[in-house]
Amino acid sequence: MKRHVLILGAGFAGLELATRLSETVSDSVDVTLLDRNDAFYFGFSKLEVMLGRQSPDDVLLPYADIAKDGVTFRRETVVGIDPAARRVTTDAGAHDADFLVVAMGADYDMAATPGFEEGGHEYYTLAGAERLRDALADFDGGRVLVSVLGQPFKCPPAPFEGSFLLHEHFTRRGIRDAVRMTTTFPMQRPVPVTGPVSEMFADALAARGIESLPQQLVTGIDPAVREARLASGESLPYDLFVGIPVHRAPEPLAASGLAVNGWVPVDQANLRTRFPQVYALGDVCTGPRTVPKAGIFAESAARVVADDIAAAVTGAAAPEPYEGSGVCYAEFGDGLVSKVQVNFLRGDAPAAERHEPSAAYAAEKAEFGATRRARWFGR
Ligand SMILES: Cc1cc2nc3c(=O)[nH]c(=O)nc-3n(C[C@H](O)[C@H](O)[C@H](O)COP(=O)(O)OP(=O)(O)OC[C@H]3O[C@@H](n4cnc5c(N)ncnc54)[C@H](O)[C@@H]3O)c2cc1C
Q1: Ligand 1 centroid to residue 132 C-alpha, Å
Q2: Domain that holds residue 77
Q3: Is residue 379 part of a domain?
Q4: Which residue of 18, 121, 185, 339 pairs with 361 in a disulfide if CB–CB is 3.0 to 4.6 A?
């Protein structure tokens, strides 16, 4: 009899996992892929929407297009998870699983930063990127603050990509001289994976005249007087506030017994949780060593989980341990994209190979998106 694999969340992790299981063991497993939404979009698409280069309709990939042997997509919202029984309750009913995989990503806690919902902007949601696009159209000059409001957050380069692209936007509109740009972040340095990678981002901020305030956390904003409060007790004035929101695990996880200190702990070698035949991967999981929240790591983890399930079902050899590795592309504006090949778990410390921003890497990034679209959605 076929075993039932239930995947909660059809993002980077869930899509790659369902695809690989379909490719490798569709004769041994039935896969149910659940998501509360009816379409997927890449995180980096939001930057395009923020700049008005693409509309939400351009970037949405409908789950209805998924056609894979042994995979059924269901649009349902998970409301409860019993990991010991491997039973999941949704707004449409209940599902039992032989293998349960939690791939629900990270949600945002907008209210964690007082004043932010009322008077701030963000580009971490599609709706937020659209609102920021409209606000930018009305913005003629003043002080722009781009602030990381908490850790961990998705995609370590994304706050800096946003700053570079806003710099490009203001320059193209001929108003850059009328804009003072500042970025604040709680880390010691931008994208702190390794010294050389961090330096590439720090140098690029300086070259564009964007002031950096490291180890500064904005704890709230006062939209009435347009002031951001810092944890240090100081405050910074702004005319346009753009925040990278505080992240948290999606709603039902806290009550499920799976999450500890907010996120789901796993054995980083194979992404297993402490519950038998229950896995967690991608942005929702955590482990003894830091692997950033990014699609590339979710995707490489999905390959390990798929092969671990396949090994259990078919008796094949267990996969090599997960290495937390991938190729990360980051926008620097003016059509330039950097590339960093990174590995977080193989050695004692993260290892990264940095490649300077170029048009050639912009083409590679476009190819990265196109191959995933084709692989997951047949487009
Ligand atoms: C601006 C920006 C730029 C980025 N750029 C990059 C980049 O260039 N490269 C890169 O690798 N990463 C990038 N990322 C990060 C990347 O988008 C995420 O890290 C990645 O999507 C994580 O994959 P995941 O599968 O863990 O979660 P997700 O892709 O977020 O998928 C989780 C899924 O679970 C679903 N879900 C959640 N709760 C429920 C529920 N209760 N019921 C049903 N379904 C639920 C969600 O709807 C979602 O579809 C970027 C992110 C942002 C915001």
Answers
A1: 20
A2: 3-106+249-320
A3: no
A4: 339
